[in-house]
Amino acid sequence: MKMDSKTMFVTMSPWRLFFTVALPGMVSMFAMSIYSIIEGVFIGQKLGEAAFAAINIAFPLVMINFSIADLVGVGSSVPISIALGRKEEETANNIFSCSVVMILIASVIMGTTMFFAAEPLARLMGADESLLHTASKYIRTFALCSPLTTIFFAMDNYLRISGYIKTSMFINIFFNASTIGLLVFFLIGLDMDVSGSALASSISMCLCSLLAMIPFVRGKALLKFRKPKISMKLLKEIAACGFPTFMSNIAGRVTSILMNISLMTLGIKVFGEGGGTTAVAAYAVLMYAGELCQPLIYGMSDSIAPAIGFNWGAENYDRVKNITKCGFIGAGAIGIVASGVMFFFAEPLASLFVDAEEVKLLELATHALRLFSVTYLVRWFAISAQSFLGAIEKPLQATILSVCVAFLFPVIMLGALWGLKLDGIWLNMFGTSVLALVLGIILIKCVWKRVKR
Question: How far apart are CA 324 and CA 321, in angstroms?
Answer without folding.
Answer: 5
